[in-house]
Design goal:
This protein is α/β, with parallel strands linked by helices and 263 residues long. Helix content is 24%, strand content 23%. The strands form 3 sheets. The protein has a 5-stranded mixed sheet with strand order 1-5-2-12-11, with no helix packed on it. A hairpin with a 6-residue loop joins strand 8 and strand 9. The protein binds 3-methylcatechol and fe (iii) ion. The site of fe (iii) ion has 5 residues, from loops.
Length: 263
């Protein structure tokens, strides 16, 4: 970022906060409470969480205003690069006793002309099936890269991966972000979701999430990330037993700036 850009954005940010202080007559008690709150957000490690849930949706909307890809949404605070690269038949790394119902996620990765993107990479991460869901490499007690993995689309752009149905996620009540949600009377729950980063050379990386039809918390997502066409049905693999579920989604990547592809 250039110093001119920094100046432009920081000046506007400070000006907008000054307007709030003036318009709402924010006093010293409140100013000091804000300072203490932000110190706690920092020391608890919740800066990425707080910014993701309050502001990232708007960054997503600004960034993708003219996008021709399939629907994007926020990355959130818990992406970790370097997840294991899986080989077909792909199964996300999991504990031997991993809770949650089996789930097979399949679909395609194509460009905006419908051409299969052979070898496109899908980097997936999700919470466990325990309520509330927990993320490996973030919450203690889970193996490294549990329920995180990368896989590749085949020569027809198809992918398939076995995992478990994630549980809804609750922003912990004991931290500053959870306390703020409580004060605001807002639900701290996120609906169950799967995270994806889908990438291919020459294309703009697609960051998104998938949600499940009829699940709880879709209308009150604490992460403000739900978009209607990211909600997909879970269909039973077998009506007669507990074999688990299947879900399907077709990702579309748009050319990166300078790709030169006709679109
Ligand atoms: C999550 O799992 C998440 O995806 C977001 C956006 C915010 C908090 C927890
Ligand atoms: Fe998440």
């Amino acid at each position: 970022m250039s110093s001119e850009r920094t100046e432009e954005v920081v000046d506007a940010l400070v000006e907008s906060i000054r307007t709030v202080i003036t318009d709402h007559r924010v006093d010293y008690d409140e100013f000091h409470a804000a300072v203490r709150f932000l110190v706690r957000v920092g020391s608890s490690g919740e800066i990425p969480l707080l910014l993701a849930v309050f502001l990232e949706r708007t960054v997503d909307e600004v960034t993708h205003a003219a996008s021709t890809s399939s629907t994007t949404t926020i990355e959130g605070p818990f992406y970790v690069p370097g997840a294991p690269l899986l080989k077909a038949p792909c199964k996300l790394p999991r504990r031997v006793d991993e809770s949650g119902e089996p789930l097979i996620v399949s679909g395609t990765v194509r460009d905006t002309n419908g051409q299969a993107l052979t070898g496109a990479e899908l980097d997936m991460w999700q919470a466990t099936g325990d309520i509330p869901g927990q993320y490996s490499n973030v919450h203690p007690g889970l193996p490294e890269f549990n329920l995180r993995g990368r896989l590749r689309a085949d020569e027809r752009g198809r992918f398939e991966v076995e995992t478990v149905v994630p549980a809804p996620y609750e922003i912990r009540r004991s931290g500053p972000t959870g306390e703020l949600f409580e004060l605001l009377g807002k639900s701290a729950w996120r609906p169950a979701h799967l995270h994806f980063k889908v990438s291919h050379p020459g294309y703009r990386t697609l960051t998104t999430q998938l949600f499940f039809t009829g699940h709880e918390h879709l209308e009150t997502d604490a992460g403000n990330a739900v978009k209607e066409d990211l909600i997909i049905p879970l269909t039973k693999l077998n009506e007669d037993n507990n074999a688990g579920f299947r879900a399907s989604y077709d990702f579309v990547l748009e050319p990166a700036a300078g790709n030169g592809a006709i679109h």
